[in-house]
Write a structure and sequence with these properties.
The protein has 4 helices and 2 strands. The protein is mainly alpha-helical. Strands 1-2 form a two-stranded antiparallel ribbon.
Length: 122
């Protein structure tokens, strides 16, 4: 869901003529990095947040993590000159996409009375 959200945002920002190519390119080229980042960063964060019952804090934490990753990736892009505007827009796009992705799975999480989370199927 996060990758789809990011693809839509990037497609809209690229303009009318580049909407579909940017959308498809983001989905194709972003699938593996998104899966790796989700596993390497999202899984540990989800485990750390298990005692936290408030789901809005989960959404905020995932959004913050996405913004940090976006800032880091923007800083690694050499041809951008790492301008503040580019880094801020990248951080906001990635943070927002990850927060929306976490918000999309909100209903799949069941919170037990002690505050631990378990998947709905468990």
């Amino acid at each position: 869901m996060s990758l789809l959200c990011l693809a839509i945002v990037l497609a809209f920002t690229s303009g009318r003529d580049w909407f579909l190519p940017m959308f498809l390119a983001t989905l194709v080229w972003g699938a593996v990095p998104a899966a790796v980042l989700a596993f390497c960063a999202g899984a540990p964060l989800g485990i750390l947040l298990q005692p936290v019952r408030n789901q809005w804090l989960h959404v905020a934490a995932f959004g913050g993590l996405g913004a940090l990753i976006g800032t880091g990736l923007a800083a690694l892009r050499p041809w951008s000159g790492s301008s503040a505007g580019f880094m801020l827009s990248t951080a906001l796009m990635m943070g927002g996409a990850v927060a929306i992705g976490r918000l999309a799975v909100w209903r799949l999480v069941r919170v037990d009375p002690e505050g631990h989370q378990a998947p709905l199927s468990a």
